[in-house]
Amino acid sequence: MKALFRTDASLEIGTGHVMRCLTLADALRFRGCESVFVCREHNGHLGERIRQRGHAIHLLPKSTQPRSLDSSDQPPHLAWLGADWEVDAEQTAVLARSAGFDLLVVDHYALDIRWERKLRPVCKRVLVIDDVADREHDCDFLLDQNLIAEFGHRYVGKVPAACVQMLGPAYALLQPQYAELHDKLPVREGAVRRILIYFGGADADNLTGMAISACLALPCHVDVVTNPKGPHIEALRKQVQGHDRIVLHEGLPSLAALMAKADLAIGAGGATSWERCCLGLPCLVITLADNQKPIADELNRQGFIRWLGHKDAVSERQLSKVLKSLVANGINPSWSAQCCALVDGLGATRVSETLTGLGRSDLIVRPGTRKDLSRLMADAGAWFSQALRDVSDSRVYVAETRSGTLLGCVLFRRVAGKWESASGFTQIAGSPSLRGAIIKAAFRGLRGDTNDCLSFGSGWTGPAVAGLASAIAKTSVRKSLAITLCSDRGSWINDAIPELVLDCLAAGHRVTWSHSADQAPAGDLCFYLSYGRIVDREVRSKYAHNLVVHESDLPQGRGWAPMSWQILEGASSITVTLLEAEDDVDAGAIYLQDKIDLSGDELCADWRALQARSTFKLCREFLENYPAVLTHARPQTGDATFYQRRRAEDSRLNPDLSIREQFNLFRIVNNQDYPAFFELNGKRYVLRIEKSEIA
């Protein structure tokens, strides 16, 4: 994946846009994405900083062409661009066409829907990072990390209906060390001994100097951070001379270390607000730009900061008075604790997860708790509390990413002995495949939490089975069948069975999933999938047909673990058979067969996945063609052979043979339950095997 960033820094713009884009680019790199920056060559651009972080950059020349500043439909910050927007769009598009980018990230107040539409043909998807909500966008993703009253409605009518909106401080783009420090640092309380002053990379009005003056009479250590290329750097250097308690820091790569030491901060209302909150650092805020005002107002209203006012309305005397009061009375620990609770520092991870797509390893589906109620969608909250209290007939599962991004929730409720389901998803869980994965994971949770048979009624359609589009789900069903799926408790196939359950439900069948054939209700068909017990004639009489899937070309290879034994023998192609269960094991009539082709490098998890896919393919084909498929039944012919049950002892390696000679044994061992081992000099050594690609 390749991402193109269009953003700028300058003495007027400041450094915040580029710095948060760098944070996102670093997070995307962790997920295998290459990033390229396009910036204009303003005074104060951060091209060298971008290169130092390991990202490529193309600097556009600052244009001397006149810009259209008299039109009322131009973005308010158009002057920040340094060129006509159409020229900028074409210059960026030339670079984009030359490399082919999967993602365009736009973080610039001077660019709007017209610029974005010009870039649409050369980038697959567009992310806009915004703070001001003062113009329309054509984008697939919108990120606004700010806390503003009713921010959920802020971009209504300004982005496409299908746009995924990531709103609020949970998505604040902070460097990794902030998340690392978030849980380590104690809350601030009591005496103010150390103060941090930082007003961003521009500070054209020299509020830094005013804050230093206000601190001169205080008995506190003061750390001042500034831009070495800023317009007031010489004045600041002179101002701190002779004051041992005031230290000027120039061009720091991160504020985290100084924030961790500070008891109180003085600063602006920009992106640094989220860094301070993440580390629980109370702050006195003076806003520098109009777009900071509504953010500061809401943070002040909720008690996260003390907003003293806008830059033109705050005096040194006013600031000095507030500082003296805080130094005299100390910091209330609730102020610091409240800040910590607002921002956890994982925003960049959440955004990168959303942009690159979630794999199964990123997904967590767990039982819901009362702590989840405040995070849920409005339509889910009504039934969530009730479901938690109904411990006998309700189960609710919450889906989130490893970084804690809420994806949705799934409710199971048992009515008249049958489980029904409802689901709700956030915009982040936009893809049908992700929603399907969430529902399947919830099924696995339900199966693990419930000892008895799980019976589901017919009619599972729409959102309940979102994301599932197998062949059977598209097939019209002549008759709704009562189907039982029987598997051993603890079997490897239980992880995959929810896919078959949901496909059958989507096709209009009634389904029971049981770990005991004796306890399962009567019905039309019963499929025994990795079920290791003998089923007698009385149990089989509950169904019109009892069906077994066996991985061999019967009658060859009856018995136990046929797939493992054949791989150990060096087989490159394995026949999978769907047959009728009879009194004699694996001896019934054959209905359907499939083949699994092996490349020779599959380990246990790999060929198990192929086995599940082939198993479900045969089950679906049988159901799609039932009852006509019964006419395909043919008896087994030829001499039968049998495999014995595999034991832990069968994973024993010979220390005198090479790995190459025993590689097929490594392929079939189970690292968790039956790992490979060998004995030497009176000791037993256990080996576990994993596969990875060679770089």
Description:
With 695 residues, the chain is an alpha/beta fold. The chain has 5 domains: 2-167, Rossmann fold, CATH 3.40.50; 176-342, Glycogen Phosphorylase B (Rossmann fold, 3-Layer(aba) Sandwich); 358-450, Aminopeptidase, CATH 3.40.630; 451-646, Rossmann fold, CATH 3.40.50; 648-687, no CATH class. Helices cover 30% and strands 22% of the residues. It is built from 21 helices and 28 strands. The strands form 6 sheets. The protein has a 7-stranded parallel β-sheet, with helices on both faces. It has a 7-stranded mixed β-sheet with strand order 18-20-19-21-22-24-25. Strands 10-9-8-11-12-13 form a 6-stranded parallel β-sheet, with helices on both faces. Helix 2 links the parallel strand 2 and strand 3 (56-60). Helix 6 crosses helix 11. Mean pLDDT is 90; it is low at 466-477.
